[in-house]
Write a structure and sequence with these properties.
The chain has about 375 residues and is α/β, with parallel strands linked by helices. It has one domain: Alkaline Phosphatase, subunit A, CATH 3.40.720. It is about 35% helix and about 15% strand. The protein contains ten helices and twelve strands. The strands form two sheets. Strands 1, 5, 6, 7, 8, 9, 10, 11 and 12 form a nine-stranded mixed β-sheet that branches. Strands 2-4-3 form a three-stranded antiparallel β-sheet, with no helix packed on it. The longest helix has 25 residues. It starts with 8 loop residues before the first strand and ends in a 12-residue tail after the last helix.
Amino acid sequence: MVTAKRNPALVVIQLSGGNDAMNTVVPYTNGIYQDSRKAIGLVESEVIDINGTLGFHPSMGPIKQLWDKGNVAVINGIGYPVPNRSHFRSMDIWHTAESASIAPDGWLGRAIREIDPTHGNVITGINFGRGLPRSLHAKGVPVASVGNLGTYGLLPDIKDQQTRDMALDVFSRMYGPTDGTDAVLQAIGETGMGAYLGADILRTAPEMYSSSIEYEAEVEIAQSLRDISQVLQADLGTRVFYTLHGGYDTHAGELENHSKLWHELSTAVGDFFSDLDEHGRGDDAVVMIFSEFGRRIRDNGSGTDHGSGGAAFVIGNAVKGGFYGEYPSLELNAQVEGDMAFNNDFRSMYATLLDGWMGIDPHPILGDNYEQFDMFRR
């Protein structure tokens, strides 16, 4: 479990596009599944069996190895009331933990504010990727956004050290604290200083890192998880890491695309935990994997269209592995407009992670009390 000296870290991986839950955790013995998936159905000889009725996608071998260690929780039928099939609205709901209205900030931004209310560490939260995901946004909360840790920094193209130091000095004075500025200029100044300080801190992480694990080259999710491992092992105080893996909107060519995506992701997650374990840090992080919705039960001849009733994963040494919630019934009378019904509110998973793993009261962040899973070893 979490060591006495290290604070637990949460790594969130967003599967953008709507991951097909039925071809991820596959009900391969179910006749309705086989009848509904004439074009893209997976059969017993292909899946990685879990319990005689459900199996992982054949590209999920490394995650199955973590499952066999008891370190993978699968949350079946995860979603929210009145599901929305729009990528943008559904992802906004997941990002803000608010399904009935439009929330002003993200659940992880609120969590970072609870962790570090004085903003003493500008890299308490880091996004590895472009832009800033809505889940990390909260007023006054600094979050670094890193494309590539090896080249991350301010003015990295300036090679001459004296010239670079002069430029950085100008930058620091430009964004330094000033009296009498309006709110907009103050916010810009805080953002600029956050970027300045964050870049200065993060550039030290690669210099401190050494590993025998060879993450897949040219695979973005693998490189992001390698960078996360570097920062985690550098003990810079980062508690929340975020990254995404895109391409899951598989309306066509799903068999090939889904296989490629899950090979990339599963291999990267396996390498990440091998890397942490190699350095005695395997107990320090938990990975949460989610997508905005699942796909329709019936295929469209080449892929699947937007649905609901998805699947999420929580992975780590501290996790009590297994299934959480029943796999949604595929019977016609249990379907919701051709989709699997949701039977686990995603905010229960958030509450479990916040309270059971991060040690944070979930109520101020989620705005309500949600039933929690008994997911973590004590």
